[in-house]
Write a structure and sequence with these properties.
Rossmann fold, 8-stranded mixed β-sheet, binds NADPH dihydro-nicotinamide-adenine-dinucleotide phosphate
Length: 299
């Protein structure tokens, strides 16, 4: 028997959304030899991909009909709802699988999962934790949640995107919950970095002069994250390294320096305020980890 007749049928996928990330996903699928049908709200964004072998669908309905698996990657769930909930698209999706890699909140992911179940659509939620340049390389990080069997069924096609894929659980909102928590770290850290660069500039230090030292701060973070995670899970906040009184004092120096230069200090002022609140509640001898418990308190 000739070798080609023994091969498994060629994998196929539809990708809805051709922003920078959607295009990166399509590119990786094409590189891996996956038959890829594409559709985007604004026409014309698929030209380069079509030249490389992607199939351009004339409508969202035609796109989702072309493959058993549709990957959606648009700006948010308002956008994905506005495509998937068109009556003709919903009907065409019945019995097929959607993997929604658009970012949004865990609540929106759960609502979308309930909507999909109501309409007989097999549904997985996911998030991409790395930039477009990592897609199709070993460095991409994808997280998924929803029915495990459905995930395993489509994993061979998803693997064409490269990187690591992790199924986090059956709760459809779990991938979005990880995404939000991780993006919280990213955006507050990067905003803190922008504030640091503003202070440095006001003090006559260029961003590039500070950068090597900023990198050093970055390298301290991974072990600190791990130690803090153990303390927060165990509820053991007593200071061994840096009590809140010391942390609040350092934060105040940053506030004062910012204000001396007329630089917006709202971010670090908020952090100092939280530390002082914890101190006021009798936690002066605790580490900063106490704030995770304090911020999570209701009322
Ligand atoms: P955007 O987040 O800017 O999303 C652009 C895509 O969303 C386009 O296809 C756009 O269509 C579509 N879109 C926007 N509004 C609507 C709407 N109302 N109806 C239908 N489609 C709509 O760009 P990305 O491609 O970068 O991101 C896609 C997703 O990937 C986002 O959720 C983002 O958070 C996530 N992500 C992106 C990363 C990155 O590095 N770029 C990294 C990790 C995750 P149109 O062309 O018609 O405007």
């Amino acid at each position: 028997m000739p070798a080609h007749t023994e091969r498994t049928p060629q994998a196929a996928v539809t990708v809805i959304g051709l922003g920078p990330m959607g295009r990166a996903l399509v590119s990786a699928f094409l590189d891996a030899g996956v038959t890829t049908t594409v559709w985007n709200r604004t026409p014309g964004r698929d030209q380069e991909l079509v030249a490389r072998g992607a199939v351009s669908a004339r409508s969202a309905e035609e796109a989702v009909t072309a493959s058993e698996l549709t990957v959606v990657c648009v700006v948010n769930y308002d956008a994905s709802d506005s495509v998937l909930q068109r009556p003709e698209v919903t009907t065409a999706l019945k019995g097929r699988t959607v993997v929604n890699l658009s970012a949004d909140t865990p609540g929106r992911a759960r609502e979308a999962g309930a909507w999909a179940a109501e309409h007989g659509i097999r549904y997985l939620d996911g998030a991409i934790m790395t930039p477009t340049t990592t897609i199709g390389t070993p460095h991409g990080v994808f997280i998924h949640s929803g029915p495990k069997e459905l995930y395993l069924e489509h994993k061979p096609v998803l693997d064409a995107l490269g990187g690591t894929h992790t199924h986090l659980g059956e709760d459809i909102g779990r991938a979005a919950a990880y995404d939000i928590a991780l993006l919280d770290i990213w955006w507050t850290s990067m905003t803190g970095y922008m504030h640091a660069l503003a202070i440095a500039r006001a003090e006559g230090i260029s961003a590039q002069e500070l950068a090597p030292f900023a990198k050093g701060i970055g390298e301290i973070l991974p072990p600190s994250f791990e130690e803090a995670a153990v303390e927060v899970d165990n509820g053991t906040y007593a200071a061994t390294v840096n009590p809140l009184t010391s942390a609040a004092s350092t934060m105040a120096h940053i506030v004062h320096t910012s204000e001396a230069h007329g630089i917006d200090a709202s971010l670090i002022r908020a952090a100092e305020g939280l530390a002082r609140r914890a101190i006021g509640l009798g936690h002066s001898g605790d580490e900063l980890t106490r704030l995770a418990e304090l911020m999570g308190r209701r009322g």
